[in-house]
Amino acid sequence: MTGHNRLAAAALAAWFGGVALSATAAQAQTGNPLNFLDSIFGNPSPSRPAAPGTSAPSGGSSAAQPWSGEDGASGHPLMTAAAIREAAANFDNCVAAMWPDAARRGISRESFERYTAGLSPDLRLMDLMDSQPEFTKSIWDYLDILVNDTRLARGREILAQYKPQFDAVERAYGVDRYIIASIWGIESNYSTQMGDRYVVNSTATLACVGRRQAYFKDEFLTALEILHRGDLRPEQLRGSWAGAFGPTQFMPTAFKRFAVDADGDGRRDVVDNPYDLIASTANNLKKDGWQAGQTWGYEVVVPRGFNYMLADRRQTQTLAQWEQMGLRRAGGQPFPRSSEKAYLLAPAGAAGPGFLMLTNFRVIMKYNPAEAYALAIGHFADRLRGGAPFVQDWPRQERALSRTEKLELQQLLAQRGFYRGTPDGQFGSETRSALRNFQASIGAPADGFATGEMLERLRGR
Q1: How high is the pLDDT of residue 64?
Q2: Which tens digits make up the pLDDT trace of 334-353?
Q3: Are 222 and 199 a contacting pair, CB within 8 Å?
Q4: Among 8, 90, 170, 254, which residue carries the largest CB count within 10 Å?
Q5: Can you give the pLDDT at residue 62?
Q6: What is the pLDDT of residues 294-338, one digit of tens each?
Q7: Nearest Cα residue to 164 out of 268, 274, 271
Q8: How far is it, in rounded angstroms, from Cα 252 to Cα 254?
């Protein structure tokens, strides 16, 4: 979604190799951070602290690591250690200089002083912004982590506990309750892992230090608007390193666009008010184009010898047309509406299951522009409603390539004339297209799935 969760789809690509995880430049620019990665790889966040009175909460988690003091991996001039130190030294002046912009948004001087008092730059964010993990996870490992029995059991409890709210929201917005419950579960493990950094401090840091200052200035000022209006209290604005907060991880600007006061109490509380949370998440999806009464996609069996050049987000056809090419719904059921248009996703290539993705899958990707994330959300929702696990097996014998290996693969594709981008160890559509063309040149299934065998073939072994 524009302006909501998902700052760096590139970071997702680094974590989960072998899956179509890249976003367009526009999505990456307006997206928000990946707090659900913290939920997967980090520890549960401690409970939010008690209300701090009139002063702002402290900047970060009490267990936060210090900044490494090193240049950022992106190579951006504002991410050098010297530039970071220089900007940090000017932090107070930078925050003070944003007062005129705050005033233009209707924020009072009293609110500005109150909510910016005690802020200090959290330079650990510079490491998190430019994090480029060496090792990655496969799509099946990712799904195993997110779609598990414990989380499903808690999701069913949530659906029962807040049934009246889900009923009302589903009537008002036409958005599937299971999708909303799925987002809640995957984003924050049902409110147990929401992040522990003070959003105002994080966004102020990122507005004054590093390579995304213009973007985060808007987020910072919007966070001040939220506090000035009284929708949320400072102690509620704790979240991920880049400012996403609440059980379904709203960025401040996304909150401003989509949050609603469902119970009419005068506050849009997406942190501690389940009705507001459920309705606001539904409003987000509806405004992003959610199609009421329709699903997100179908697992399909792809026939042997299929032309995987057609497994491309731009290659949209009706379900009936895909059937004419030999694709069948896994499990043998017919497609309810064969006239719906879909694209084919093959996240593990010819060795794994295929999926035909409908309009609502693209809507989920607006919430987070990563196909692995959207697939997890859709599958988790189906399981919550009583659906079965995926029918087909994943190629679990394959391992995800490390970032170094993916960089080498891109370099070798470039040497052979297939890849024209700048090798960076992160796989997007250009890399997958280049790999498909190489696979076709050697008579292999052109599925764009990066494996150790393909790397060896490129090495000429």
Answers
A1: 61
A2: 999 999 999 999 999 999 99
A3: no
A4: 254
A5: 41
A6: 999 999 999 999 999 999 899 999 999 999 999 999 999 999 999
A7: 274
A8: 5
Q: What is the pTM of this model?
A: 0.87
Query: Which residue do the tokens 């936060």 mark?
Result: 64
Whole-angstrom distance, CA of residue 110 vs CA of residue 102: 11
| Amino acid code (one letter) for 406 | K
Residue 200 CA to residue 59 CA, distance in Å, equals: 8
Q: In this structure, what token pair is assigned to residue 34?
A: 């990946």
Phi/psi of residue 437, nearest 5 degrees: -65, -40
Helices 371-384 and 139-146: crossing angle, nearest 10°? 40
Check residue 401 and report its DSSP letter: P
CB 347 within 8 A of CB 18: yes
Give the C-alpha separation, 259 to 281, whole Å: 8
Residue 141 CB-density burial (10 A; 0-12 exposed, 13-18 middle, 19+ buried): middle
Q: How far apart are CA 306 and CA 33, in angstroms?
A: 37
Q: How far is CA 131 from the centre of its chain?
A: 15
| Nearest Cα residue to 404 out of 14, 79, 8, 12 | 14
Question: What DSSP assignment string belongs to 93-129?
Answer: HHHHTTHHHHHHTT--HHHHHHHHTT----THHHHHH
Question: Hey, which residues does 355 pair with through a beta bridge?
Answer: 299, 345
Helices (H), 334-441: 359-367, 371-384, 403-415, 429-441
